[in-house]
Amino acid sequence: MEKSHENVKAFGWAARDTSGVLSPFDFSRRVTSEKDVQFKVMYCGICHSDLHQLKNEWSNSIYPMVPGHEVVGVVTEIGSKVEKFKIGDKVGVGCLVGSCRKCENCDNDLENYCHDMILTYNGVDTDGTTTYGGYSDIMVTNEHYVVHWPENLPMEAAPLLCAGITTYSPLRYYGLDKPGMHIGVVGLGGLGHMAVKFAKAFGTKVTVISTSVSKKDEAIDHLGADSFLVSRDPDQMQGAAGSLDGIIDTVSAIHPLLPLINLLKTHGKLVMVGAPEKPLELPVFPLLLGRKLVAGSGIGGMKETQEMVDFAAKHNITPDVEVVPMDYVNTALERLLKSDVKYRFMLDIGNTLNKS
Fold first, then answer.
1. What is the pLDDT of residues 10-20, one digit of tens each?
2. Exposure of 154 by Cβ count < 10 A (0-12 exposed, 13-18 middle, 19+ buried)?
3. pLDDT at residue 254 above 60?
4. How large a percentage of the chain has pLDDT more than 90?
5. What is the C-alpha to C-alpha distance for residues 44 and 109, in angstroms, rounded to an integer?
6. Angle at CA 202, nearest 5°, toward 199 and 206?
7. What is the distance between the alpha carbons of residues 78 and 6, in angstroms, rounded to a whole number?
8. How many angstroms separate the Cα of 85 from the Cα of each of 30, 38, 53, 139, 198?
9. What is the C-alpha separation between 171 and 176, in angstroms, rounded?
10. How far apart, in whole angstroms, are the C-alpha atoms of residue 78 and residue 98?
């Protein structure tokens, strides 16, 4: 069915300024148009990028801001020309809710690289309004930017829609998904633990690289990594030199690249998915001497995101989450700042977002 009257009342939690503190917020969603899907939000992950945006650390924040781009819920209404979904379907929305649909990137299922990409929150929609994310009770999204959520995949696995696709996409695109390859994963947070799980599911050998030796047992015993390197230990790093086909670097802090480049085999690929706020030093000689590649990757297009979710369901890949009520969100953000979570906070929107 399709409605034609005023906007839909919505409720969520928003930040009003650079303090980043969230509080209850009444707002409106657009009416469900002919190609839109409206859904009740059940779960929404807290991504580290939410922290940056809430505090305007990337200098592009629009307030009031309702964050959230790892959103899973149940369809409650569809537009008259929606073809892919029906009422009652489980669905997900990730980091983008719009693109131009005309450029070369969009034509090649790379909406995530479209210059006119519309972010799920803190973006500007085609009608000039600010987009609001999943820390809210309902979403209204064009069906093209909605994924089917597999029945056997828990809704709490919503971080697949950001942390999952951010690590799945470079493994696939850069050919680091072949059984028997040896893949390194730098950092063991929200992104890193997903990179380990996907790389293992592809049949590769995985080495976790971290500054903290305390994460060794977690990496090997819990996540199934094959080996562990302490990046601050020169002997360990030297001993592993030239051993890796590729590395997924998930670290967002300033860190040296030379030790990582030295771990690569000839033709090895170091792929950056973390986003340090300042430029990193890139030594060129080690690249020349091994025809090595330093590259980047950001989320994925809609076709690949659906492929990733289906792959995760088939191989029983889920993020490790701590489920918390909506009114715990500010505490969760404080803990996230201290890396006090394994590995993703998950807001139980459906059961705990109350107006009272």
1. 999 999 999 99
2. middle
3. yes
4. 93
5. 25
6. 35
7. 16
8. 19, 10, 31, 14, 28
9. 5
10. 17
Distance between CA 280 and CA 127 in Å, rounded?
A: 38
Q: What is the pLDDT of residues 27-85, one digit of tens each?
A: 999 999 999 999 999 999 999 899 999 999 889 999 999 999 999 999 999 999 999 99
Residue 271 corresponds to which tokens in the numbers above? 């792929």
Q: Is the pLDDT of residue 1 over 60?
A: no
CB 71 within 8 A of CB 161: yes
Instruction: Return the number of other C-beta atoms located less than 10 Å from residue 338's C-beta.
Output: 7
Given a cut of 60, whether residue 2 has pLDDT beyond it is no
Q: What count of residues does the chain have? A: 356
pLDDT at 3 over 80: no
Cβ(283)–Cβ(308) below 8 Å: no
* β-bridge mates for residue 182, sequence order: 205
Distance between CA atoms of residues 209 and 243, nearest Å: 13
